[in-house]
Design goal:
463 residues; 5-stranded mixed beta sheet; 3 domains; alpha+beta; Heat Shock Protein 90; two-stranded antiparallel sheet; 12 helices
């Protein structure tokens, strides 16, 4: 008996169903996700059985074909429901649902003769077209979701790989840290005693708020004190040699009185120089002690005009005592009715004395150059600006270069020749004004023309 064309379609649907299952297995990775996926490889068996039944019993109903096709769709739907936690599987289930419902309705409504009632035929054809478009659309969406999930999986694998690499690096770093820590422990023990000595020396030299840099301060001290100590050592060595030569001369049977006199004169001169440079070293040490001393004075109402005038005359007379030939013009522009300022008089006087002395030193140095028509002039002005009292000290000396102005308030920095300054005056003055009186001390200058220091003090200061 020959199979009818309807039953012959089963021979086409059976391998098609097998291809659908294979594609589904590959797309959804069923061997890893579904424990009973091996049963799906026998999806073709019902189709072959139905074909044989139709051939043996001479059944020509298209319901056999539709029933097998509906069976395949239900198996696919069952697989998708089992994998509903997997997003592409849910999307495929959504894609299959309209098509499956359409086929189910068609199977139910088809009569025993294999024909649909005319009133349902057009409706089912229309819905079947929509279901096919829906199915294709969501299959494409599921494919894109699969790609996205695959990319996310690859990204997670890369992140895990990077994490494992970082963990391995952390282990290696921890090992290196342990080794380095062990190496540094010994060094730390050696440095601990040196650090203690360093802190002690630091506390003895200056207060912590007066030290911007320990290295800079130490270098400044060494530089300042080295010169007088070198002179003391050199003249002492020469004096020892001269004394030895004098003893040799005195031990001779025939002595040379003139040579002995010359040696004694030279020794006396050397001793004077040793004394001079010893005093110089002592003054540096004294300046260091003053720089590190915290003022314990109390603020009192102070007349800035009287204080400035007093220390201006004191500084001028002090310089004239050293150089009788020096003369300078003193200009004072004191604001009348200037209010009293809460200040520590001796400390503020030390600041003014330092600024005045520097101003006279500057104009004297320019005068020594022999410039024609030059007249040394130092000007002092006071005035009130709001709740501040300002004091200006201006000289027409050689001025201060820009590079020097940036360092002028640093401890032990000085532009004076060796032996004429310790470099502590302006540093002390700056600390007294800014820290002791909550004011400001600034400088402006133009090379070859002038230098001007400006002190600004609040009239009423909180303790």
């Amino acid at each position: 008996m020959e199979a009818t064309p309807s039953n012959g379609q089963l021979l086409f649907l059976a391998p098609l169903a097998l291809l659908i299952i294979r594609g589904l297995r590959r797309f959804l990775d069923l061997p890893a996700r579904l424990s009973w996926n091996n049963l799906l490889r026998y999806i073709w068996v019902p189709g072959v059985v139905l074909f044989l039944m139709g051939w043996v019993f001479n059944l020509h109903s298209p319901l056999l074909v539709d029933g097998y096709w509906l069976f395949v769709l239900l198996v696919v739907a069952t697989v998708l429901v089992a994998l509903r936690d997997y997003r592409p599987a849910r999307t495929l289930l959504l894609a299959l649902a309209p098509f499956l419902i359409n086929k189910l309705l068609e199977f139910v409504l088809t009569g025993a003769d294999g024909r649909l009632p005319k009133r349902f035929d057009q409706v089912l054809d229309t819905t079947q077209g929509f279901a096919i478009v829906w199915l294709i659309t969501f299959i494409i969406i599921a494919r894109n979701q699969k790609k996205t999930l695959e990319q996310e999986r690859l990204q997670r694998e890369e992140e895990e790989k990077a994490k494992r690499l970082i963990e391995a690096q952390n282990v290696e770093l921890e090992r290196l840290v342990v080794e380095r820590t062990a190496a540094l422990t010994f060094q730390a023990e050696e440095l601990r005693s040196a650090l203690t000595e360093l802190r002690t020396t630091q506390a003895q030299l200056v207060q912590s708020e007066k030290m911007a840099s320990l290295g800079e301060l130490t270098a400044g001290i060494a530089h300042e004190i080295q010169n007088p100590l070198n002179f003391v050592n050199n003249f002492a060595d020469v004096s020892v040699e001269m004394l030895a030569e004098l003893r040799e001369e005195q031990a001779r049977p025939i002595r040379d009185p003139e040579l002995e006199a010359d040696l004694l004169a030279d020794i006396a001169q050397n001793l004077q120089k040793i004394h001079h440079h010893g005093q110089r070293a002592a003054s540096i040490v004294k300046g260091m002690l003053e720089h590190s001393r915290a003022s314990s004075g109390e603020r009192q109402p102070t007349n800035i005009n009287h204080l400035a005038d007093e220390y201006l005359r004191l500084a001028y007379q002090g310089l004239r005592a050293k150089d009788k030939t020096f003369n300078a013009t003193l200009n004072t522009e004191f604001a009348p009715d200037l209010p009293l300022v809460q200040a520590i008089g001796p400390d503020l006087g030390r600041v003014l004395l330092n600024l005045f002395s520097n101003a006279f030193y500057a104009v004297r140095q320019r005068q020594l150059r022999g410039e024609a028509g030059y007249a040394p002039t130092v000007t002092v002005c006071t005035h009130q600006r709001g709740d501040q009292i300002e004091i200006k000290v201006r000289d027409n000396g050689p001025g201060i270069p820009e590079t020097v102005r940036q360092k002028i308030f640093q401890p032990f920095f000085t532009t004076k020749p060796s032996g004429e300054g310790t470099g502590l005056g302006l540093s002390l003055s700056y600390d007294i004004v800014t820290q002791g009186h909550s004011g400001t001390l600034t400088v402006i200058s133009e090379e070859g023309k002038y230098t001007e220091f400006l002190i600004s003090l609040p009239i009423n200061q909180a303790d």
